[in-house]
Write a structure and sequence with these properties.
The protein is an alpha+beta fold and about 150 residues long. It has helices at about 20-30, 35-45, 80-85, 135-140; strands spanning about 5, 45-50, 50-55, 60, 65, 95-100, 105-110, 120, 130. The protein has a single domain (about 5-140), classed as SMI1/KNR4-like.
Length: about 150
Amino acid sequence: MKLQWEPYLWAEPHPVDSQVLDQLEHQWKVKLPELYREFVPRYQGMGPEPCAFDVGTGNDAFSVLLLVSADREKEAYSVNKARRVLEPHVPAGIFPFALTPGGEYLCFDYRDAPEQPRVVLVTAEMSIHPVADSFTDFMARLHDGENPPA
């Protein structure tokens, strides 16, 4: 199934320069996944379609790719705001990149794999659930909710 990006925060894309990602890597002291670095400059503030992913015994959905650029009106959707919310409640090495419809966070988990972080879901209760071994694997496994990939 072909991945498409749909408007979420704005009607039109809000591109961002790759230097902003370089600054984020420096600030967080991590190396962001290459596919994420490809997607964010074009699709920040947008949602993928299909958007369902498997977690535990059920599905959830990827609503919006969090913003890496500064936007006062949309600060609630920024990676830095999300990190400030999560930081006191999750171990070091967990960095948010997206939101679900329920306000839970999809995050990179660098704790065991600093070169290729895993993708985890951090719930409203701040429990951490594994989702995929990499961002590339996560994106490849998105589905329509009815027909998960094999």
